[in-house]
Amino acid sequence: MKNIFFTPGPSELYYTAQEHIKQALKDQIPSISHRSKQFEAIFAETVQNLKTLLQIPDQFHILFTGSATEIWERMIQNGVEKHCFHYVNGAFSERFYQIGLELGKKATAYHAQEGSCAAIEAGQIPEDAELIAFTHNETSTGAAQPLEDIYAVRKAHPDKLIAVDAVSSLPYPDLDFQQVDSVFFSVQKGFGLPAGLGVWIVNEKFVEKSKKLQEKGIGIGSYHSLPSFLSKAMKNQTPETPNVLTLYLLAKVSGDMLQKGIAHIRKETEYKAALLYHTLENHTFLQPFVKEKKFQSKTVIVAETRQDSYSVISYLKNNQLIVGSGYGNYKPKHIRIANFPTHSKEQIEMLVDRINDLKNYTSA
Amino acid sequence: MKNIFFTPGPSELYYTAQEHIKQALKDQIPSISHRSKQFEAIFAETVQNLKTLLQIPDQFHILFTGSATEIWERMIQNGVEKHCFHYVNGAFSERFYQIGLELGKKATAYHAQEGSCAAIEAGQIPEDAELIAFTHNETSTGAAQPLEDIYAVRKAHPDKLIAVDAVSSLPYPDLDFQQVDSVFFSVQKGFGLPAGLGVWIVNEKFVEKSKKLQEKGIGIGSYHSLPSFLSKAMKNQTPETPNVLTLYLLAKVSGDMLQKGIAHIRKETEYKAALLYHTLENHTFLQPFVKEKKFQSKTVIVAETRQDSYSVISYLKNNQLIVGSGYGNYKPKHIRIANFPTHSKEQIEMLVDRINDLKNYTSA
């Protein structure tokens, strides 16, 4: 019997992915040229499906990198001359902020408690900050910033660039792209694909900024600068030979999600999240790490364990259910459960049953 | 019937790759954590197999990027403070040189004729150049710089860094790694794998240079700087979630190549290359583009066509044999044939038979 991976990325493959891989091999997709019409059609299909699925407006471009980590770097390089501002509430938002510093920018962080999110208030964001970085879903703690907070910041700072790390939340959030400038994710989480592809959704305003930096002689990188990306994307191509197989799979899986319907996926996600939080709230030695309901992520559910988390993880593993350990210092104290579109209601119910079994195990 | 891809990358998958992909899916490799022991074992196996296969000395590190194009950028960032020198003889060596300029360095190029290689002479390399870039196998033209030329430059410039683009030649060349500092390739060529992974083989001398640049406050990037790479590689990990599936496949295919024996692979490569060049030399309207035998690549064989290359490519395609078109301006005038380890003697003989058929087609 196979394991079911509820790890928050890499995670369980989307349930159609394996069939698409077999078809890709049959059609020799890994051997086609990335300068061929066949590749251009795959690129165009991926972009079109993502635009439809996530309701991405026309003035946005969709670009492909090696990872979401790469997008952190490219975003700072292409969008920030001097100063970027970061809301930080965990290991991944912290890493994004650190990349700003490593690239020689003045980066400023507003720290919120881990397991919570910043209470957005006027005056938090320095006047000369050019880019405001949100981590919509902090994968290390399971805290999600409400979209309304992002929109409030947009209203207060219409001229700044707003960047949203949605690595472990998309396609779930019904994000209004008109109110942000740059959004990104990696395919091994909500889209259930093999890792090795980052997706960068970026608008013309952001592109204009990168061109201004270039004119000023500020380094914006080489093959993966925004102007270089766009010179190829307009032909449905990439600057380098990309991860063609995973790009093909993203076209197919986003097509499958369109067939299923994004509203259906969102509703299911909310049902499964409610079930998981209910289970944790009524457990004897597990409880949600994120206390405030409005900050509780629907896609990465993190539980505090009264005892060592290792015995919980082991018990579930013995039942072929693989959950994530806590991140960093939380390793012995947390478990992390991904609730992605590939995870069916039945699978989450099975997981919940086993978590409830644990109440009777005093050794656990 | 399936096509056989003789395109110079992406190309035909290594003949064992498909079975390894099936096994990877069975073992749920795409779902495992890149911070798990299981991943670390895959990383270690890949490094060990490549070190054994290519006889890479201990003081070299093997690092993984999204593409070989990325390695061009990382190498300039991490190895060059001010000045890099490039031997340029085609589109890819030219692109490497351009990346030096785009990253704000003083880059100097020594141009050789396309379809040939530089005649190495004293005085070509500026005294203050810190890095000397060779493109061992210029994929756009099929010209290969003899290894002895690289060694001669090492002897004359022992203190400079020597970088070798072996993207479309490895694992064929029997390169003496003691005489170079940085070598790189991408997996979709000689190793016959799905694209989306670059392999950077780099020594301690190069790492020291990157640390010196960092101390001077010169930007060497963030997550993919050499110090960041190494802090993870020492644990058999990567800074970001990498292309785990292709990394696994690289472990397996390099293992298969070890079983077959690198000497055997090299001998076969030379036999097949000799057959292809012999065919071109005796053809009525095809001839080798690279005239000087010492510069003729063994892994990418480029033919000039007296007429439009399109009819040649079409005739072969109708026989399920896919060869590459000419690169850039050579598109209508050349065909490019990959001779990689996955291409069997029988497949090359079949291709040669069809190329010989063409002699009788006056329309072609």
Mean pLDDT across all amino acids of chain A: 97
How far the N terminus sits from the C terminus of chain A, by CA atoms, comes to 24 Å
User: What is the CATH class designation of the largest domain in chain A?
Assistant: Alpha Beta
Largest interface: chains, residues each: A-B, 56 and 56 residues
Number of helix segments of chain A?
11
Q: Assign the CATH topology of the largest domain in chain A.
A: Aspartate Aminotransferase, domain 2
Spans of at least 5 consecutive residues with low confidence of chain A: none
Kindly state the percentage of residues in helix of chain A.
25-40%
User: Can you tell me the overall shape of chain A?
Assistant: globular
User: How much of the sequence of chain A is in beta strands?
Assistant: 15-25%
Biggest sheet descriptor of chain A: 7 strands, mixed
Structural class of chain A: alpha/beta
Per CATH, the architecture of the largest domain in chain A is: 3-Layer(aba) Sandwich
Q: Radius of gyration of chain A from the CA trace?
A: 21 Å
Structural domain tally of chain A: 2
Oligomer: homodimer
CATH homologous superfamily of the largest domain in chain A?
Type I PLP-dependent aspartate aminotransferase-like (Major domain)
> Which sequence of strands runs across the widest sheet of chain A?
2-10-9-8-5-3-4
